[in-house]
Structure to design on (356 residues):
């Protein structure tokens, strides 16, 4: 009894320190941004005048597209735990829980998603594992894709004035990165969710994250190209830098939506290519437009889900996996093999148990 009390007290103290760290971090970020804007206002106003409405809209659209691909990864993660969701349904669930990441605390995104899953007949354990698996894929995917896109710059093969002497090293680096990424995905998925992924699902996890990196990275490259030129703005560097920044932002639970951390890491990766003031404006504009995309994606997902639900509401209409009422946990099986058929230890699932 005394031991339980001490554990509870220690956990409470830890939460207080964590909350204090989050508030302190937000104060530091706000103070830094205010100071920077005050010192560089003329420069920021000049750059903003070059950022057209069309370019801003393109950033929002590509960001929403990237988030849709992320929601597809969430759908795959729940299928691995035995629960099938429709495409639009999952996009709605992802967008609804993604909005609360801006609330200080760092865990509201997780709590919101787990509750949404649990409301749709997933067990608390299955919901937590599915969300953990999705986040693991996002962190590792962002990290390894960042390395893939930045490797050419690191081995100096993008400089047209020099021979491509680093090509063998580049190919070796890419090969090792992909192998490490594949092994990390397989091992981590087994530890986090208790599932042994089939090669098809492992490939899906990697390819989806690669596409996510490209779509979200364009959100940095487009403002960069708008205020300089497409020739000066290095697309590979923008994608790789933003991917590394996302990876760091995901694990910085004290920073709501990774604010500050994502930008610092992205700027570090862009430092050798882009002038600091250009890079700072590009990642800053991306932060603002990403918030717009989060709200826009939420609105689009909610509107589509609501509209399709209304037009399919008559009793004679066949049920759709994208609409309510949601299929139960014993719904249709996935169309692709989710786990290795030879694996008999698929987490905690046994033939006599519910699949989630």
């Amino acid at each position: 009894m005394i031991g339980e009390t001490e554990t509870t007290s220690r956990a409470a103290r830890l939460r207080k320190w964590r909350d204090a760290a989050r508030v302190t971090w937000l104060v530091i970020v706000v103070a830094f941004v205010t100071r920077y804007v005050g010192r560089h206002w003329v420069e920021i106003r000049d750059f903003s005048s070059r950022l057209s409405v069309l370019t801003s809209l393109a950033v929002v659209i590509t960001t929403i597209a990237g988030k849709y691909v992320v929601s597809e990864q969430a759908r795959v993660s729940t299928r691995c735990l035995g629960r099938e969701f429709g495409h639009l349904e999952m996009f709605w669930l992802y967008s609804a829980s993604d909005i609360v990441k801006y609330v200080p605390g760092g865990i509201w995104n997780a709590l919101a998603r787990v509750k949404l899953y649990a409301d749709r007949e997933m067990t608390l354990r299955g919901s937590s594992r599915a969300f953990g698996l999705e986040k693991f894929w996002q962190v590792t995917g962002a990290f390894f894709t960042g390395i893939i896109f930045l490797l050419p710059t690191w081995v100096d093969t993008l400089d047209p004035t020099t021979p491509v002497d680093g090509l063998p090293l580049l190919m070796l680096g890419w090969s090792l990165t992909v192998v490490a990424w594949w092994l990390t995905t397989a091992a981590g998925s087994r530890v986090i969710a208790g599932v042994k992924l089939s090669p098809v699902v492992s490939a899906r996890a990697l390819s989806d994250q690669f596409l996510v990196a490209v779509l979200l990275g364009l959100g940095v490259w487009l403002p960069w190209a708008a205020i300089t030129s497409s020739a000066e703005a290095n697309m590979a560097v923008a994608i790789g830098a933003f991917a590394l920044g996302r990876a760091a932002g995901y694990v910085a639970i004290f920073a709501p939506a990774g604010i500050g951390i994502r930008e610092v890491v992205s700027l570090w990766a862009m430092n050798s290519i882009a002038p600091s003031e250009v890079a700072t404006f590009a990642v800053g504009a991306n932060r603002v437009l990403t918030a717009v995309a989060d709200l826009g994606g939420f609105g689009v997902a909610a509107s589509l889900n609501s509209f399709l639900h209304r037009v399919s509401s008559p009793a004679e209409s066949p049920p759709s996996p994208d609409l309510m009422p949601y299929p139960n946990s014993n719904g249709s099986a996935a169309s692709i093999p989710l786990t290795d058929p030879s694996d008999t230890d698929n987490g905690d699932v046994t033939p006599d148990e519910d699949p989630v």
Summary: Residues 11-311 form one domain. The radius of gyration is 22 Å. The CA atoms of residues 147 and 240 lie 7 Å apart. Residues 2-39 form the longest helix (38 residues).
